[in-house]
Design a protein that fits this description.
Helices cover about 50% and strands about 10% of the residues. It is of the alpha/beta class. Strands 1, 2, 3, 4, 5, 6 and 7 form a seven-stranded mixed beta sheet that branches. Helix 6 (about 90-100) packs antiparallel against helix 8 (about 235-265) and helix 8 runs antiparallel to helix 9. The radius of gyration is 22 Å and the shape is globular. It starts with 10 loop residues before the first helix and ends in a 10-residue tail after the last helix.
Length: about 400
């Protein structure tokens, strides 16, 4: 690697920089969510910190962080702003895909872009189509042989922040293929139209591709979306644990808001047994319960991250990968329920004043509920139960 594609920053330096940014990343988030203001400045601050190339291996000039390092950083960011944390999920998923299954040529093509600070988005899902092989986005040559990308994608998380967008399309042979195009190339339209009740600033809107030129070096290799016989890999678990990490950050954010609110709130209930909220045993009990829930969410994420790190090791047995996927599914169950319960209990730390729109405490539940709705928890519980009873392999569909 030459000097332009290496970094002298260590894992510890990057994680320290991210931690030091936490306060500024959190500034104004409650109000920003009310008006749905996307955190562009925060994305740039994290780009400058080196976070975006945290997982690039030392072999390719990066700091070589572990998965526990990354997911710990995600929790830190989500504690400040869960929208910001989720908005970078596609970027880290793209990098992980390069490490897992891309060709050597693809790694040499794209990892220098990551090291240069470029951010990658994802445009994959389509409305009204359950079978990916039936997606309507196409990649086909025009009259002069130039490949052209045409289609409409939904839930393009992070693409409004991105320099490059990975797009999954169907080629002329009916095969799913993945290409990477600049977000500002002619024919790419990014639409900020996501209208979810929570996680409203994750840049998860619609992306439209109209006769977008795709060059040969922008086609990814080593990506097989249809081979049901392929060994189970950890990439789906990576994406799912990323969401669980964001959820754990929400739970800790609830705890931080609860403790600050109780310390600074001036009035207790008329029938309180204490002179101040910070002395009220029932308020303190609520804060303690919230703290325990946040601790549980972070703890299960940390455990699953260690298991996923083993699954990501070269030569890991398929059973190790499957067991890690099951642990990630359990983690989603625990972290999601812990965050939602914590978000509900924050209102027990105060009376009607705790429901003030200015505080926007309701965002915590809306955010946690929205993430949990991405991948229904009932299916996670069913898969873990089926594995325990029948030793059944979870689906190879990216959700495990």
């Amino acid at each position: 690697m030459n000097a332009s594609t290496t970094t002298s920053r260590t894992v510890e330096e990057i994680l320290t920089a991210v931690g030091e940014l936490r306060s500024s990343l959190a500034s104004g988030v409650a109000e920003a969510e009310l008006v749905r203001r996307l955190p562009y400045d925060s994305v740039e601050a994290l780009r400058a910190s080196g976070l975006t190339f945290l997982r690039v291996p030392t072999l390719y000039g990066g700091p070589g962080a572990t998965l526990p390092d990354l997911f710990g950083a995600v929790i830190t960011i989500a504690t400040a702003d869960p929208n910001l944390a989720q908005g970078l999920r596609s970027h880290f998923g793209f990098v992980e895909g390069l490490l897992l299954r891309a060709s050597q040529a693809d790694r040499e093509r794209w990892l220098p872009e990551v090291l240069a600070g470029r951010i990658f988005g994802l445009a994959e899902a389509e409305l009204g189509v359950n079978d990916p092989t039936q997606w309507r986005t196409t990649l086909a040559p025009d009259a002069v042989g130039t490949l052209r990308l045409n289609g409409r994608k939904y839930y393009s998380t992070g693409s409004l922040f991105a320099d490059w967008i990975e797009v999954v399309a169907v080629d002329t042979a009916g095969r799913l293929t993945s290409v990477v195009v600049p977000s500002d190339r002619a024919g790419v339209e990014l639409i900020d139209d996501f209208d979810g009740m929570g996680q409203r600033a994750t840049a998860s809107g619609t992306t439209v591709f109209t006769d977008v030129a795709v060059h040969p070096g922008e086609i990814l290799h080593g990506t097989d979306f249809t081979d049901s016989d392929r060994p189970f890999n950890y990439h789906g678990g990576f994406y799912q644990l990323y969401l669980a990490s964001v959820t754990a950050g929400i739970a800790r954010n609830v705890f931080d808001d609860a403790t600050t609110y109780v310390r600074t709130k001036a009035r207790v209930a008329n029938h309180s047994v204490a002179a101040s909220p910070s002395e009220d045993p029932y308020v303190l009990e609520a804060v303690g319960e919230i703290g325990a829930l946040a601790f549980a969410a972070e703890s299960v994420v940390a455990h699953a991250a260690q298991r996923l790190e083993l699954a990501a090791s070269p030569g890991a047995a398929e059973e190790t990968v499957i067991a890690a996927a099951i642990d990630v599914a359990k983690t989603q169950l625990v972290a999601s329920r812990a965050a939602m319960e914590a978000a509900e209990r924050i209102f027990e730390t105060g009376g009607a004043s705790a429901t003030s729109s200015a505080l926007n405490f309701s965002r915590h539940w809306r955010n946690a509920r929205t993430i949990a709705s991405h991948n229904p928890l009932a299916y996670k519980a069913r898969a873990t139960g089926d594995y325990a009873v029948n030793h059944s392999t979870p689906p190879k569909n990216g959700y495990f």
